[in-house]
Design a protein that fits this description.
Pfam families: Glyco_hydro_10. By secondary structure, the chain is of the alpha/beta class. The chain is built from twelve helices and 25 strands. Helix 11 runs parallel beside helix 12.
């Protein structure tokens, strides 16, 4: 199925093709790996495939090796019926080993002939060798069945309630009721200062979400618009709101490498020493004030696309930021946070391998970096590519969070909703994903790209999707009678529960948790 484990990303020899190559058959008994080579710019090695179907989920993979360059960004592209090429996967390939490409695509229309070919990003001459190619189709039903199977295994757990009397005898026919009171998996949204004093908005939020992130209120341009003028009153109030409702909150962000998002007074600091002093005051002041309050911190936002601080303070600036943040708040999980890693493979600055390489570089330098942040500002989502990228990132062994999910406002409301559902289902079903945040902070004028409601809190189509999925992914209530063994079993979503057992006009109530685990959870109740 589509969840076939991702092999090592780099290896001395190419591993066998996934799915035995799927519909991508080439080579022969004397050439089982099907090696193909090309000079840059030539459509070979190329795989020609026929009669691809609309809406089918196609997963693609192969191994790539270079000659003529030590390393290069290689893009796998699909050209259906010669109508233009699209990226379906990328890899940072090398000359000293084989590198693994994993990607995929969905077509808008059926095609009679399509070509999958490979290009290096900078067009320098080199030889590309490809082996163990695979293209495996899945119907939408097969894809959905795999999602549901993963949810059953990773987001739910079977529990058995055993009811006995004080002498230990089984109680048969006792009425058992369980109700989920809190969810284990964090699903949340960005909020802004507009939630303060707005009781209707606050109730709407806490009725749905168990996680939050502040849209702009913690960013440096908000907390210190001019040097020495610190403004924490708004984030303090927002933090009090989420704390009062037991909502976990992410810290976003300490620094942002984008010059346009840097306070003007900071940009005007011409001396590296003055900039370093300002940076140290920022991180120490922020982390000391909020020590222990934020579960996560996005330490240096979007460092794959921008380099304001690293350009001025040196290439080790990010490493230093992570080190100081870890010392200041050792209980917080520190994250990279980046866009266009999961949304597309057309951005050469933020491919999945580029992200992984930067993360490894920071950790090798001593950074305590324990979280993978994927923003998720989607246009039209490519779900097979999304899964492939998550599979590759999962090999890093770190929790993956979607930190800013939305769908571009260029789509109409119904299309936004359809795409949002695709993204949320894929994110929730992937076993390496630990949490999901929507970038839907509500303002009178709307939201960044996508709202869930209008200003009057009336659901938009995207809000209907979120409400439906939140209900689908919780155990609203389960119940029945104990069997001949005095037991009642059910499968519930991970989280906190209230258990009520009634027998012969006697009722007992208790609480229990369903935490991740493969074994059945056993709860004993004495009547």
């Amino acid at each position: 199925m589509a969840g076939t484990a991702t092999p090592p990303i780099l290896t001395g020899q190419p591993e066998p093709a996934l799915y035995n190559g799927g519909i991508l058959k080439f080579g022969n008994s004397d050439d089982p790996d099907g090696y193909r080579t090309t000079e840059t710019g030539v459509f070979s090695p190329a795989f020609v495939v026929y009669n691809l179907n609309k809406t089918t989920m196609y997963t693609f993979s192969c191994w790539v090796k270079l000659e003529g360059a030590s390393n290069a960004l290689i893009t796998a592209r699909l050209a259906p019926d010669n109508t233009g090429a699209r990226c379906i996967g990328t890899v940072l390939a090398r000359s000293d080993c084989w590198a693994f490409v994993k990607g995929g695509f969905v077509l808008d229309w059926p095609t009679q002939t399509a070509v999958i070919f490979f290009q290096n990003a900078d067009k320098t001459p080199m030889k590309i060798t490809v082996a163990s190619g695979s293209l495996q189709p899945f119907t939408t039903d097969q894809w959905a069945m795999h999602q549901q199977d993963t949810i059953r295994k990773r987001r739910k757990r079977v529990a058995t309630i055993h009811v006995a009397d004080p002498q230990g005898a089984r109680v048969v026919g006792a009425s058992v009721s369980v109700q989920q009171t809190a969810k284990d998996f964090p699903i949340g949204s960005a909020i802004a200062s507009t939630i303060l004093g707005n009781q209707a908005y606050q109730k709407w939020f806490v009725d749905r979400f168990n996680a939050a992130v502040f849209e702009d209120e913690l960013k440096w341009y908000s907390t210190e618009p001019t040097s020495g003028l610190l403004r924490f009153d708004v984030p303090d109030q927002m933090l009090a709101f989420v704390r009062s409702h037991r909502v976990m909150v992410r810290g976003h962000n300490i620094f942002w490498e984008n010059q346009d998002a840097t306070p003007r007074w900071v940009k005007n600091l011409t001396s590296p020493d003055d900039l370093r002093a300002a940076v140290n005051a920022r991180i120490q002041g922020l982390m000391t004030r909020y020590r222990g309050e934020f579960a996560h911190w996005d330490v240096n936002n979007e460092m794959l696309h921008y380099n304001f601080y690293e350009q001025r303070l040196g290439p080790n600036a990010s490493m230093e930021f992570f080190s100081v943040a870890q010392d200041a708040d050792p209980l917080a999980t520190l994250f990279m946070n980046e866009y266009n890693v999961i949304e597309t493979c057309d951005d050469p600055f933020s491919t999945v391998d580029t992200y992984a390489a930067k993360l490894r570089e920071l950790r090798a330098g001593g950074a305590i970096l324990e979280g993978i942040g994927l923003e998720g500002h989607f246009s039209r989502p490519n779900i097979p590519l999304m899964r492939a990228i998550l599979d590759k990132l999962a090999t890093l062994g770190l929790p993956i969070w979607f930190t800013e999910i939305d769908i571009s406002s260029k789509f109409d409301a119904q299309t936004q909703a359809a795409y949002l559902e695709q993204v949320l289902r894929e994110a929730y079903a992937h076993p390496a994903v630990s949490g999901v945040m929507l970038w839907t902070a509500l303002h009178p004028s709307g939201c960044y790209q996508m709202c869930l409601t209008d200003w009057g809190l009336n659901n938009l189509p995207t809000g209907d999707v979120v409400d439906r999925l939140l209900n689908e992914w919780r155990t609203l209530q389960a119940g029945g009678q104990t069997d001949a063994h005095g037991a009642y079993s059910f499968s519930g979503f991970l989280g906190e529960y209230i258990l009520t057992v009634t027998y012969n006009n006697r009722t007992t109530q208790s609480t229990f948790s369903l935490s991740p685990g493969d074994e059945t959870r056993h709860i004993n109740v004495q009547m």
